[in-house]
Structure formats: structure tokens, C-alpha cells
Amino acid sequence: MVSKSLVLSAAAALALAAGSPAAAAAPSSSRATCMLLSDLVLMQYQMRKFHDMLKAGTDTGEARRLHHWLSDHPQVDLRIRLRRAGLQNFERSTLDLITRHKGLLEIHRRHGPGKAEAEAKRLGTDARLQSYSARILPLPCNYAPPEDSAGGALSGLGQLKQLPQEAVITGSLLTLILGAAAGVLAQRLARRRLRLSRRHPCALPCFLECGDHRFEARIVDISRLGAKVRVGLEDGQPVPLIKGDVTASVTGLPPIEAQTIRQDHDYVGIKFSSRLARAELKRLRKRNAAQTVEPQAAVSPA
């Protein structure tokens, strides 16, 4: 069993090395590794004291201290720090010990030290902790793992490589160019959609066929994508529900296949199955303008 003095000496050596002038001159990655190793040494020391307390059967506050340490060092944070320091070989064993001791702390809280000690023996947690201590304590503060250490390829993180300045500038310019191109493309698509969906008020007579029914109607506005039609029935009868596929017949144009998308009393909104040609829309607008001018000329004074 590792003695308390040995553990404290190792932790103090790591802390002194982290605060020494040599460490201050070392790269930030070495300082981060030194602080990480110091945390791992203190972790296994708190776990060892917790096991000693369980064996003694007395409550000396070690469970509370271990719980505080685990709360202050989340597993996600430790995993990232281990990977950045290149200590992937210690990741699984570190997280395994943390998970086991969280379970033991919960058993100790609910059932007392006797049950917790029995569970620790059943899981072999004490042997795992001794093996972990034998691996972590001899590591120097400036430990640098070999480049081809096992698990390095699976880390997903690691020491960040210093990119050349030319690569950074090129990447930034490429990002700006792609962003500008995407913005221009989005604006062009929005304008095109606006042109297609722009509605033109009109009053064009037509027939709307839905199944076996044929309604006399009038187009009140139209675009290349659809139209709004007002259905008129004699004697003020209510307009029945019109849904599904319909056919709009307008003088001078072939029948237009469409689908109803909404209905509000005698107003029916339809969407054309195929986009209306620009020339066809222009022809309808001219006819509507001619219809509007003729009645005004008829009623104007001589």
C-alpha cells in the first residue's frame, strides 16, 4: 500500500514543478500535462483514503472529500484533458475508477460502510486502484508520451498542429469567397421565386371543372404558379366544397390542370400542375387590360 507521505511527496513535487521557473518557460502543453498528473495523483490518494475508511468501519469524512473531488472534476473534462496530453492509455482506467467509486459512494450513503466495502471486494476495486497507482505515480511532471503510443489514433483529439500562415490566409479567403457566392446564389433564387409567384390582379372569365361539376368563374389574380378564382352560382346558392384536381379553361389557352390548395366561401386558390409560360401570362394580362379599357370607352361621353 502506498503510504500517505509518498503520495503527498509526489503531489508536492508535481505542484512545485508546475510552479518552477523551468516549467514557466516550458510550453503550455507541458504545464497542462503536469497539472493533469497532479490531479490524477490526488484522485487516487482520495480513493485510497476512502478504501481505508471502509476497512476501518469509521466515518472520517473521506467519503465527503472524495465526492467533492469527483464533483469538481467532471468525466468529460478529464477525458478531454487526457486526450490533449496524449495520455489515452490512462483514459479507460481513469474513467472506470471514477464510475466504480461513484457507485461505492452511493452505496455508502444509503447502506453504510459495511455494504460499500463488500461491494468493493466483489468488484475488485482495491486491486484496480493499486494497479492504477503503480502506473500513474512514477510518471514525471514533464512526461511526454511517444508519438506511436497505443490509442493515439483513436483519440480524436490531441496536440493541435500549428498551421502555416499561408494556409490560414488561404482558408480564410476561401471561406469568404464561398460565403459571398452562397449569398449571391440565395439572392438570385429569391428573386426568381418572387418573379414566379408575383400575382397580377385581373378579372378574366373562365370555367372551373372538378369531377362531374363545371362552374362558371372569374380569375381575380394570377401568377405563373397559380391563381385565385371566384366561383359564381345563380340565385346566390352556396358554393360546394371544391378539392383535389381541377381544370381551368380560359379562352385562347389550352386547359390548365391544377390542384386546389384552399377555399374561402366562393374564393378558391389553385396551384398549376405545370408552370404557366411567360408568354401565356403576358397574353392573359393583355386580354385583361383590353377588357378593362373597352367598358370605359363605352360609357365615356361623346
UniProtKB/TrEMBL annotation:
Keywords: Membrane, Signal, Transmembrane, Transmembrane helix
Annotated signal peptide: 1-25
Record flagged with keyword Glycosyltransferase: no
Membrane-crossing segments per the record: 167-190
Pfam families: PilZ (PF07238)
InterPro entries linked: PilZ_domain
Domain PilZ: 195-284
Protein name in UniProt: PilZ domain-containing protein
Organism lineage: Bacteria, Pseudomonadati, Pseudomonadota, Alphaproteobacteria, Rhodobacterales
